[in-house]
Design brief:
With 218 residues, this protein is α+β, with helices and mostly antiparallel strands. It has helices spanning 37-47, 60-66, 80-90, 99-105, 176-189, 211-217, and strands spanning 17-26, 30-32, 69-70, 76-79, 106-109, 111-116, 123-130, 137-145, 149-158, 162-170, 206-208. It has a domain at 17-42 and 69-135 and 159-217: Alpha-Beta Plaits (2-Layer Sandwich). A hairpin with a 3-residue loop joins strand 8 (137-145) and strand 9 (149-158). Helix 3 crosses helix 5 (176-189).
Length: 218
Amino acid sequence: MAIAKKEVGIELPPLNVGLMEVTLIGDSPLIVHAWSSKAKKEMLDKQTKAPKGAREAKDPKSDFEASMYRLADGGYGFPSVAFKAAAVTAGTSVAGITKIQARQAFHILGEDADIKGAFAGSLSRVNLVRIEGGAPQMREDMVRVGMGSADLRYRAEFPKWHTKILVRYNANVLSEAQILNLLNTGGFAVGVGEWRPEKDGQYGLFHVATERDLEALK
């Protein structure tokens, strides 16, 4: 006699989604280095085996401008996912929170911006948070490329900076206090941008704004 199979439904707890605005204060300069249209075009030409033209002369000012992420109104931005990545990576330093939990529990929302691609007519959409605190300055660095040859890089650096982020989170997984702790730890141990602590540097450090910080910003 066949035994009838009993279907068992899976009950999932409803999402408990919250929104939280957080101000982050830079503790060390932020170095930005967006992929320039020139660099992407060179990569595409190599992959499509396009004929090589004469190498263009280095233009420090153009390289500086191209290193920045710009918002639709001309303001300065930085990928929102970088701040989430810093917080998620910091999860390994916070007891009781795994990277998987952190990755699935919250998102950082910014402003969408379309960046011109290497192929004619193509665009890539990136989500940016607004970087405030003053205009960037041009930074010159000596770097090693290829087989160890030296080259100069010109990028934008924000000496003093802060940003407001909007965090959308599942309160069933992480509380506001836990997310703030992740952000603080990420800002100290991981950072964002070039030469951050995660990459053996000391730039791109930040912390969650205190009441005194918020008063000072006013």
